[in-house]
Amino acid sequence: MAEMTDPFGMPLGYWQKGIGLDVPTVPIPRAESELARKTYAYQVWRKAVLKRDGYVCRECGEDDERAFLHTHHIMPWAEFPELRLNLDNGITLCQGCHHRTHKEMRLDAQ
Length: 110
Description:
Strand order of the largest sheet: 1-2
Strand content: 5-15%
Number of strands: 4
Mean pLDDT: 78
Oligomer: single chain
Number of helices: 3
């Protein structure tokens, strides 16, 4: 008998209820990170973060009309898989602020 899957092709039981969104219960290997960010659940999370922040960079105030906006995981994606789709773990940043934030995170880690 074939394994039962959800609408995203994941085995049933893979998801647990999070804060307003479904959160994966197993870590996603780094090689699959790009694919994971293309899932419906991730896109819902991303849009919810942008909407909550008013489509404005929370660092410099640039809006969606003038800057390409990113959604940044406050607690790193790779280290905190249980927080990947938690709205409180997301913040809207413009491309420049997002790159600057990651550069600062790398320097802090050294």
